[in-house]
Amino acid sequence: MPPEALPHRVVVTADGPILVEGPVEVELPDGRKAVSERPVTALCVCGNSRRYPFCDTSHRRRVRSAREEER
Fold first, then answer.
1. Computed from CA positions of residues 25, 30, 32, 34, in that sequence, does the dihedral angle turn out positive or negative?
2. Residues linked to residue 34 through DSSP beta bridges, in sequence order
3. Which carries the bigger pLDDT value, residue 71 or residue 14?
4. InterPro entries from the xrefs (predicted)?
């Protein structure tokens, strides 16, 4: 099978984005298309990304340690 015919790998993570291997073209509900040429593209599933449909890690919540709060 030629390399371009191989399926792309998609990884659904438990608490973050969907990871897609290889270049990807994403068609949005309004018909617009977003293209990423990256080797691995992270797609937003939380809807909070400012770069939607791509993940900008907005889903992460930073928890401060007690030591950081004392400063």
1. negative
2. 26
3. 14
4. FeS-contain_CDGSH-typ (IPR018967), MitoNEET_CISD (IPR042216)
